[in-house]
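Comment thread on ticket #2218

A.B. wrote:
> Attaching the input chain for the structure job we discussed in standup.
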Amino acid sequence: MSSDVKESFAFRSEGRPESRPEPRPAPAPVSGPRPPAPRAAEPARPGPTALAAKVRTMAPSMTRSMQRVAEAVASDPAGCAQLTVTGLAERTGTSEATVVRTSRLLGYPGYRDLRLALAGLAAQQESGAAPAVTADIAVDDPMTDVVAKLALDEQQTLADTAAALDVAQVEAAVSAMVAARRIDVYGVGASGLVSQDLAQKLLRIGMVAHSHVDPHLAVTNAVQMRAGDVAVAITHSGRTVDVIEPLRVAFDRGATTIAVTGRPDAEVAQYADHVLTTSTARESELRPAAMSSRTSQLLVVDCLFIGVAQRTYETAAPALSASYEALAHRHSPRPRGR
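C.D. wrote:
> Ran it. Output below, let me know if you need it in another format.
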């Protein structure tokens, strides 16, 4: 039996995942809750550079057997690119079905497509184009090393996020925000700071936008959402109840919902029409998730803001200039008293 036939048989034996429907039309206001809908569009197949980012992002939420497959392809793309589906299953101590499921979770139709990406990633590494993995920050590192390591980690996080971000989802989210009557942004903790950043930027170009970091106020405001409004939830884990609850309420009221998360398979995605995936640097004792996720979240919300500003430039530019002028006197040096 050929490896291609085995791959197909292995996947069928595990059951085919549900296919996603076409993007849903803007819903009419509803009196009762609506069931969660799958995301609007199938994400693009990751290229070689995005593959490494995808593995780093998805591995923590995989099963242990799938993690072994992901770790193998990330650590030795050249070697794994030479293996059949059976060979990789034997090397990782898993099954052919696990290899196929891992390939699909990483964004590839099948293992053959993953092998092509692995070959491309291996070629990049041989040419020196692949970024190096930085070391963890130690408690006794001198400040010069701390600065250098943090800078490299931030660069890697931004590169991973940009490589894995589904541009079609970003454009769809921007279109919804441009047409929105109002935009509510939910986030708590470090993600709450990012939500405030996005709302502030949108306000300065004339959009009606509000950040809700208090979970009670977030839910009571979400109750007033309806079709034509947009709700944005920011949560790295994708499991933050204080963020998921208002997003679910907004979703049930017919608003267009957007999730910015590092775990696209987590609960928050069930109530999101558009999911924007963030990446994070490797966490350590001195670099927790709240710190490492913030950089990628800020990149995503900046992409949303710039996209909205581009499409509303005729009104956004004058509004931005007016806000600068209104604050200009606060930046002038005060005369010293005698």
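A.B. wrote:
> Thanks. Noting for the ticket: Residues 8-31, 38-42, 130-135 have pLDDT under 50 and may be disordered.
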